[in-house]
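Changelog note: in this version the structure field was regenerated for every chain. One regenerated record is shown below for reference.
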Amino acid sequence: MTEAILFPGQGAQFSGMGRDWADAHAIARQTFEEADEALGFALSTACWEGGDDVNRTDIAQPGILTTSVAIVRVLEERGLKRGEATMTAGLSLGEYTALWCAGSLSFQDAVRLVRLRGEAMQAASDAIPSSMTSLVGADLAQAEALAAVGAAHGICSVANLNAPGQVVLSGELAALDAVEAAAKEHGVRRAIRLTVAGGFHSECMRPAAERLAAALRDVEIAPPRLPFVTNVTGAPVESPQEIRGYLADQVCAPVLWEKSMRWALEQEITTFLEPGPGNVLGGILRKIDKDATVRSIQTPSDLD
């Protein structure tokens, strides 16, 4: 069996992502061509030549997914058997890549869904000025107490439980202003406003969740062929109908990444593969378990 396979979420994007793979490997170039055709516009050009456009939610999300799929396909040419992976999971957006990896979603459906997801999340962000704040060194109790402070000023909730001391709140701007002003009083070392389009994984995204739920009703989802762990519960899910519901819920629900990784570790899964732009997940995992082994594949030179 191969390692568990983990996929990155939004924030991993950069201008030019995937181009080195497309230049070096025909299957990677074909993957971007398939994405361009599925979306009806040149995602490849937006990722490789669009400059800051790559940071737009509706470009970053399908771009990250396509880059990750391209890398996995190259790895498969070199002997990777993704169907034998011990499990798969993805951080937020990365769940769609994980479901492709598990055979639950076709690549065409996955890339179209994340494009729509990005458009819907951007529209929700435009409608409600919102953002996210990272609480450095906070535990869940501190985060929940600060979320309650923020909630007196607008929507505010825990959005990401990534690793010990790495918790993120999400909500309206006035609410996050109040959180950041009160952070030290609650024993939190630093509260850092993140550079994101909006308050992801909070009720600010409710219109996006509803739009995505409607789109998911028309998409074929197959039972995963390997364990797929959802962000919403931090546990495996097999039922296509449950997966469909969790993908919609996930837009507003907190990302239980630490719980997901602890499930894997409890199954004695200790080796992980991270194919895609960036190596954020490897860094997070080592905060959860310093003995975990993570192999990040970001550029073609990493194949060596």
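Spot check on this record: The mean pLDDT is 96. The chain has two domains: 4-125+204-303, 127-198.
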